[in-house]
Amino acid sequence: MLKLLFIGDIVGRPGRDFVNERVARLRVELGLDFVIANAENAAAGSGINGTIARSLLGAGIDALTLGDHVWDQRGWETEITQIERVCRPANLPASNPGWDHLIIESRGFRVAVFTVLGRQYLNLKSDCPFLCADRMIAQLKGQADAIIVEIHAEATSEKQALGWYLDGRVTAVIGTHTHVPTADACVLPKGTAFICDVGMTGPYASVLGREVEPVIGRFRDGMPRRFEVAKDDVRLSGALIEIGAAMARAEKIELLTVRK
Fold it and tell me: Where are the beta strands (DSSP E) in 72-222?
């Protein structure tokens, strides 16, 4: 049995600091073979840069994924090509820089991971996540023993549909982006682990990781405001998946919450 932890969206300095403090210890305490994390909100809540990416990888994360804020930080389009264990969403145009998947290995077992962006309510130019997943699975055949698909999307219906679509073809379909952990973690009938959203790693005394009052003000009067990253009630949220090495099927998935 192998154990994989998928950490939900790391938000700002509070999320980064907590990852730096706890991930190495969690690897030992939980006997983790693989740690993957979405880091698209790691730089001040929007995007990532090279310094932050290298710090998170040095803290014990094996692979970093990204989402719709992938290009928010200036210069990242150049830096991403210099860091091997970071991938951008696979269904962005092929002209976008960076890797569209990653393969990590532990105990002779290879895990591939790629991200697809949802197309409901997201404005980034992206291909159909279903067709992209088909293409990536065909491309990865023979290169990996297990495949983890992250769907970074707004709509729970789109996430659930992809989970059922890929059941039995990949080891897990993990939802991210909405920052609120969901209570639907399960192993689907053909052996694919699924959860709509693993939540965020950052400050939960907030609105999706941002200071509360400016967000309330924006909802009330519609005027623009700066949404600074909040600071309190920092938690790590993720999905802990147990994988049967012989068949590369998910045996178990559960939501993991670690508090300070």
Answer: 86-87, 102-106, 109-117, 146-152, 172-176, 186-187, 193-195, 200-203
Other CB atoms within a 10 A radius of the CB of residue 156 amount to 16
Distance between CA 246 and CA 236 in Å, rounded?
30
Q: Determine phi and psi for 206, rounding to 5 degrees.
A: -170, 180
Helix ranges (DSSP H) in 156-211? 156-166
Q: 10 Å Cβ neighbour count for 132?
A: 21
Residue 122 has a pLDDT of 86
Known active-site residue 69: yes
CATH of domain 2-259: 3.60.21.10
Catalytic residue among 69, 101, 152, 177: 69
Neighbouring residues of 213: CB distance < 8 A, sequence distance ≥ 6: none
Q: In the chain, at which residue ranges do the beta strands (DSSP E only) sit?
A: 2-7, 9-10, 34-38, 63-65, 86-87, 102-106, 109-117, 146-152, 172-176, 186-187, 193-195, 200-203, 234-244, 249-259
The label of the residue with tokens 């967000």 reads 215
Q: Is 217 left (phi over 0), alpha (psi -120 to 50) or beta?
A: alpha
Helices (H) and strands (E) in the chain, counts: 6, 14
Say if residue 124's pLDDT is above 90. Answer: no
CA nearest to 163, candidates 174, 177, 155: 174
What tens digit of pLDDT does each residue of 27-37 get?
Answer: 999 999 999 99
